[in-house]
C-alpha cells in the first residue's frame, strides 16, 4: 500500500461474471431471454445523435410522465437513476441515517451489505426461515430502516402483499424499501400501498422484465416528500446520471406494455416447465416468481456439475462461499430452446 494518508482499504464487489462466447447459454445474471421491444429498437434507430452534445435532462420529466401514466400516479412520485443499483444506493444515503441498524434478510441481494459498509450504515442481517422464506416477525424490532426485495433474490420466493402491509404498519417510524426488481414475473406490486403508507418506497428496474440490463435505468416510487429527498441526493451526487439516449429508449419501453407482457408470460411458462423437469431429475427447486430458479440436487456433486456446465459454455450462478447456499445454483430462465439444451446437459451429467 502507498505510504500516503486517507486511502480507503476496500475489497471490490464482484457481480456475476460476464463471459462472452458465441455459442454460450448465459443464465447467470438474470437478464431477460428476449430482446427489447421492437418500438425500443426503432427509437434507437431513429435517435438524433446530435442531441448528445447537450447534457442530459436532470428532471427526466419525459420518463416520469410515461411512468405516471402507466401507474396512474403523479410524475413527482418518481425518481430515475442509472439502474436500480444507483437508486438503491441513493435510498440508503437518503433514508438510513439513524443510529439504529437497518434490517435486511441474511440471504438476499449481495449489494445491500456492500453499500451499508461503503456508507458506514449500521445493519443487522435477519436470518431467513428454514424454508428460505422471510421471517417477518423478526423485523418487528428497533431499526433504522428496512430493505426487502420482493420477490427475494437469489431465493426467488415471493411474499404476498398483506405481509408487506403488516411490516409497514409495524414499522411506521422508519422507511421501508421494497425492491421489486423481479415483480413482473408473477408477483403483485405493493405500489398501491404508497397512498396509505408514507414510509414506503418501491424500487423497480428496466433490467429484468423490460429486457434493458445494458441500458441502466431504474426508478423509485413513493410519496412526493420522500421522492424530493431522493432528488436532492441525486442532484448532489450526479445530476446527469441518466443519459439522453437511455431516457428516450426507456419511454418507448414503458409504452410497449403488450410486448413485455407477452415475453414475461413466456418466461414464466418456461420457468414452470423447467422447474418441473428439474424436479423429475431429482433436483429440489424453490418456488419462484422471478426469471430464475434456485435449485440443488441432493445426490449430485454440485461443484463438478458446475464445471461440467462451464465446459459446455453453460453459465449458471454458483455460491460456493455462502454456507447456506453452497450446494445451490441460481439458474436464470432463458428461451425454451436454451432450457431444453440445459436439461439435456443436466441429464447427461446425472447419467454418468
Ligand atoms: N435488486 C435486485 C434484487 C437485483 O437482483 C438486481 C440485479 N441483479 C438489482 C436490484 C439491480 O438491478 P439494476 O441495477 O440492473 O437495475
Automatic annotation (TrEMBL):
Gene Ontology biological-process entries: L-histidine biosynthetic process
Q: Which residues carry this modification: N6-(pyridoxal phosphate)lysine?
A: 208
Q: Pathway involvement? A: Amino-acid biosynthesis; L-histidine biosynthesis; L-histidine from 5-phospho-alpha-D-ribose 1-diphosphate: step 7/9
Q: Which cofactor does it need?
A: pyridoxal 5'-phosphate
What name does this protein carry? Answer: Histidinol-phosphate aminotransferase
Catalytic activity field:
L-histidinol phosphate + 2-oxoglutarate = 3-(imidazol-4-yl)-2-oxopropyl phosphate + L-glutamate
Q: Which HAMAP family match?
A: HisC_aminotrans_2
Amino-acid biosynthesis as a keyword of this entry, yes or no, is yes
- Its EC top class is transferase
Q: Which InterPro entries match?
A: Aminotrans_II_pyridoxalP_BS, Aminotransferase_I/II_large, HisP_aminotrans, PyrdxlP-dep_Trfase, PyrdxlP-dep_Trfase_major, PyrdxlP-dep_Trfase_small
Which CDD domains does this entry report, sorted A to Z? AAT_like (cd00609)
Subunit comment: Homodimer.
Record field: transmembrane: none
Q: What is its EC number?
A: 2.6.1.9
One annotated GO molecular function is: pyridoxal phosphate binding
* Family from the record: Belongs to the class-II pyridoxal-phosphate-dependent aminotransferase family. Histidinol-phosphate aminotransferase subfamily.
Q: Which residues form the Aminotransferase class I/classII large domain?
A: 23-341
Keyword Protein biosynthesis attached: no
Amino acid at each position: 500500500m502507498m505510504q500516503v494518508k486517507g486511502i480507503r482499504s476496500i475489497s471490490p464487489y464482484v457481480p456475476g461474471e460476464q463471459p462472452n462466447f458465441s455459442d454460450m447459454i448465459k443464465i447467470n445474471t438474470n437478464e431477460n431471454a428476449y430482446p427489447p421491444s421492437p418500438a425500443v429498437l426503432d427509437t434507437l434507430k431513429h435517435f438524433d445523435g446530435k442531441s448528445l452534445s447537450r447534457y442530459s435532462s436532470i428532471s427526466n420529466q419525459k420518463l416520469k410522465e410515461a411512468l405516471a401514466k402507466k401507474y396512474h400516479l403523479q410524475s413527482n412520485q418518481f425518481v430515475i437513476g442509472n439502474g436500480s443499483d444507483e437508486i438503491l444506493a441513493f435510498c440508503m444515503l437518503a433514508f438510513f441515517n439513524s443510529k439504529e441498524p437497518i434490517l435486511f434478510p441474511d440471504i438476499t441481494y449481495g449489494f445491500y451489505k456492500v453499500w451499508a459498509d461503503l456508507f458506514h450504515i449500521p445493519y443487522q442481517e435477519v436470518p431467513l426461515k428454514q424454508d428460505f422464506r422471510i421471517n417477518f416477525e423478526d423485523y418487528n424490532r428497533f431499526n433504522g430502516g428496512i430493505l426487502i426485495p420482493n420477490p427475494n433474490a437469489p431465493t426467488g420466493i415471493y411474499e404476498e402483499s398483506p405481509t408487506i402491509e403488516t411490516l409497514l404498519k409495524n414499522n411506521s417510524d422508519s422507511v421501508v424499501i421494497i425492491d421489486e426488481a423481479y415483480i413482473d414475473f408473477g408477483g403483485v406490486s405493493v405500489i398501491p400501498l404508497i397512498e396509505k403508507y408514507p414510509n414506503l418506497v418501491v424500487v423497480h428496474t428496466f433490467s429484468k422484465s423490460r429486457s434493458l440490463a445494458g441500458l441502466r435505468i431504474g426508478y423509485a416510487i413513493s410519496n412526493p416528500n420522500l421522492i424530493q429527498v431522493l432528488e436532492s441526493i441525486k442532484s448532489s451526487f450526479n445530476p446527469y446520471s441518466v443519459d439522453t439516449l437511455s431516457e428516450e429508449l426507456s419511454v418507448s419501453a414503458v409504452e410497449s406494455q403488450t410486448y413485455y407482457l407477452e415475453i414475461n408470460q413466456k418466461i414464466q411458462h418456461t420457468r414452470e416447465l423447467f422447474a418441473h423437469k428439474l424436479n423429475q431429475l431429482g433436483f429440489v427447486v424453490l418456488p419462484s416468481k422471478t426469471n430464475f430458479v434456485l435449485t440443488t440436487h441432493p445426490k449430485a456433486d454440485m461443484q463438478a456439475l458446475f464445471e461440467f456446465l462451464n465446459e459446455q459454455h453453460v453459465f449458471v450462478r454458483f455460491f460456493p462461499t455462502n454456507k447456506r447456499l453452497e450446494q445451490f445454483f441460481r439458474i436464470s430462465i432463458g428461451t425454451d430452446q436454451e432450457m431444453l439444451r440445459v436439461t439435456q446437459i443436466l441429464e447427461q451429467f446425472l447419467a454418468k
